[in-house]
Amino acid sequence: PPLLAQPVDLGFRTLPAQRLLVIAAGVVVAALAAWVVARTRFGVWLRAAVDHADTAATLGIPIRTVQCASFAAGAALAALGGVLGAELMPLEPYYALKYLVLVLVVVAVGGMGSLPGSLLAARQNKANIRRFQSRGLDYTQHELDESFAFLDSPDYHEGVRAFLAKRPPNFLGK
Q: How many Cβ atoms from other residues are within 10 Å of residue 49's Cβ?
């Protein structure tokens, strides 16, 4: 829509309204997901079903319903992400290599099931990419997006390797 194509001046930077919408939606979805998992009966059921499915089933928790609802929620969130992010990251043949490898690194570093850890790991991953750029390589952001060179960089690998060697089971040490 034309309304989302307009620039918004934040005082220190100008961003398209659509990017601000994606950021706001991401913050809302992350907060809502964290709240559901931590503070609701469904969150208790979900944690029980993941950690000890047999025990949870014995206690009367509908494991299959929890699994199906979780899958449906994940599919809905994937659809929302696809709709909101389609203009920012259009689908192309190398989409998986460009983005999903970075997502895998973030999840591995952040720790499975740790939303705050994954958010901090994403920030660390971005710092590793910036360090790669600052090593004298003339990559603009567009060229970086169009290539996979930073994934093959020894600097990038060393940054991730050093972090993984020192980290606890997840980024926050829990």
A: 20
